[in-house]
Write the structure tokens for this entry.
Amino acid sequence: MAHSADKKTNKTVAKASFIKRMTAYFIDFLTVLAVLISATAIALSFVYLGKVIGFIDIGNNISDYLANNLIFAGYLAVTTVGFYSYYWVKVGQTIGMKICGLRIQNSDGSHITITQSLIRMATSAFGLGNLIAIFSPYHAFQDTWAECEVVAITHT
């Protein structure tokens, strides 16, 4: 496994293994699920309030109204994209990545840009792009397209 020193911290970095990537992916899946449940609760509150004040006429079934609403689907998609983009661009790692000791970065150790995060999400195939990391020397499909890398962090 290739190791190098990160110029921004006193940490040694190595390319992330497939197992660590998948563990972080699973933890992030659970985290995003919790975020989406919270976002849905907020949406349900607004729809219920709109129903009570007479702004929305939806009958008695609020969940059917949301299940068939493209605005709600878009809201959940923007919430998911926003979650990953924020953590990748501003922090350099999601909650799952932090637990697993991983970080996403450019080859010089800097944080990725919003454009790179969007490219990464668009090419990840909902996480299936990580399967290439089994065969490729620690690069997933989305990392190649976004011109970034996921590294394992070890403190020195």
Summary: Residues 1-7 have pLDDT under 50 and may be disordered. Residues 3-155 form one domain. The beta strands are 3-5, 11-15, 102-105, 149-155. DSSP finds seven helices and four strands in the chain.
